[in-house]
């Protein structure tokens, strides 16, 4: 753990993480659930710093089935996902709370929207710099590097500052 910056709270069997535990990554993402032979195994939840979560069943470190829930309560569905698409452009807060009066546009699910740094994109869990291809959370901490597919999706669909 000292080399990765991670923290493990739980039991060990033969020197391997085993049983019900909490595993905290350097990004402050937390896994709470079952471990077996040093891997996520059984039921467990990933809690992200943004407030979102991923509840899943794991087998030897791989997801068997899971459900992603955004910080505002919206649940992602892999099939028939129609949230904010061409059929229904409302944001989740508009679905829950109703639309604003005519002439007042809601630009994001958050109202008022975040101020996006110049040249960056708001990709939902942080700001994306297309030149460095780095996504940082809204507090400026590193989240991840974007691969080609994510880069193209962000540039095509997300709001730019």
From TrEMBL:
Q: Which UniProt keywords apply?
A: Cell projection, Cilium, Flagellum, Repeat
For this UniProt entry, what is the primary localization, expressed as one broad class? other
Q: Which domain of life is it from?
A: Eukaryota
Q: Where in the cell is it found?
A: Cell projection, Cilium, Flagellum
Q: Which InterPro entries match?
A: MORN, Morn5
Q: Which GO terms describe its cellular component?
A: sperm flagellum
Q: Would the keyword Repeat turn up in this protein's UniProt record?
A: yes
Q: What is this protein called?
A: MORN repeat-containing protein 5
């Amino acid at each position: 753990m000292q080399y990765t910056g991670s923290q493990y709270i739980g039991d060990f069997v033969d020197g391997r993480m085993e049983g019900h535990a909490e595993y905290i990554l350097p990004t402050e993402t937390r896994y709470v659930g079952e471990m077996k032979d040093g891997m996520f195994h059984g039921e467990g939840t990933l809690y992200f710093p943004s407030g979102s979560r991923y509840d899943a069943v794991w087998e030897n470190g791989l997801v068997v089935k899971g459900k992603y829930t955004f910080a505002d309560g919206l649940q992602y569905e892999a099939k028939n996902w129609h949230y904010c698409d061409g059929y229904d452009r409302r944001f989740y807060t508009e679905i829950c709370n109703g639309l604003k009066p005519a002439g007042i546009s809601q630009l994001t699910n958050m109202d008022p929207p975040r101020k996006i740094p110049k040249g960056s994109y708001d990709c939902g869990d942080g700001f994306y710099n297309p030149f460095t291809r780095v996504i940082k959370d809204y507090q400026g901490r590193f989240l991840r590097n974007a691969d080609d597919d994510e880069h193209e999706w962000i540039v095509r669909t997300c709001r730019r500052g």
